[in-house]
Specification:
By secondary structure, the protein is mainly β. It contains two helices and 26 strands. A hairpin with a 2-residue loop joins strand 4 and strand 5. It is globular, with a radius of gyration of 21 Å.
Length: 341
Amino acid sequence: MRRPTPRLVALVAVVLVVTVGVGWYVARAAGSQRQQMTSAPSVASTDLASALATPHVVFRSTLPGPQYGQVAVVPLADPAGPRAFADAACDRLYTVGTTTSCLRIVRGVATRYETDVLDSSWRTTATWPLPGIPSRSRISPDGSLIATTAFVTGHSYAQVGFSTETRIHKADGTDLGSLEDYALTVDGKPFTASDRNFWGVSFVDDDTFYATGASQSANATWLLKGSVSARTLTAFRSGGECPSISPDRTHLAYKKVVRTDAGQKVWAYAVLTLATGTEQLYDVTAGCDDQIEWLDDTTILYGMARADEPGTTDVWSLDISTPGAKPKVFIPGAWSPAVVR
């Protein structure tokens, strides 16, 4: 057996030093940012049990302070008022009933990503790994299915060549597979390009859902209707992304590219009336990049970053039933809202 040469030993030593150094720098930078966000005064809070006892919104708190990143709850009757905090922290979340899908970045020298399923006491009942940065999550209305999307490469839908993985699990953690394994039909024909990409699930029930599909080689993005039991996806409209079905199941909201600025996509929200195929575009939402949550059948909610405060986001609302209505801040310092009626 040949002994390693001094040059090889030196090279291995350099690689180890660089690897440890990069890991230390990343962890230190992340820790510094978290310290800045959590060193602010505490946010006004209220009793969690009382907030959960009425119709409410569950979300990720992004106001600077010790509770930054924690799961928070506000009553629908007072969304901008004091918030209650749960004993959980998520980067992206969604709640149906008493079940919460909590997508987390677990930072360290070796950063990992995971989904935790939380119960009514905010205890973890199931966990599975994510392949990359958390992006989207939705739960079926009966709480039985959880969809997650994570970036495999890239970290933004505005990037060229990003790749995502979208999987559906049962709430107990049983893996029902990736949407890449579903049979995709476009214009009545099977579409099997290897660069198919899927994200942004919205469940209609415990089988039917809407999602986004795309192919860079086809230079196309589609809204899809899918079936978990049949493992099929069917394209029915071009150009929409991150669909969200309204509570009464009559409208589908999604983001749509309206222009390109300096090579970057700029989206605005659109709402499709499913019975007629009529689409209404809302230019007042230009610059958005989130999957809509419905407050009710005529009001949409979405998250927007504050341009002058890195790390802080707000949840905005828009009344789509009133012509000329302007967006309003619904919950300041919030992200990833889920309405629990």
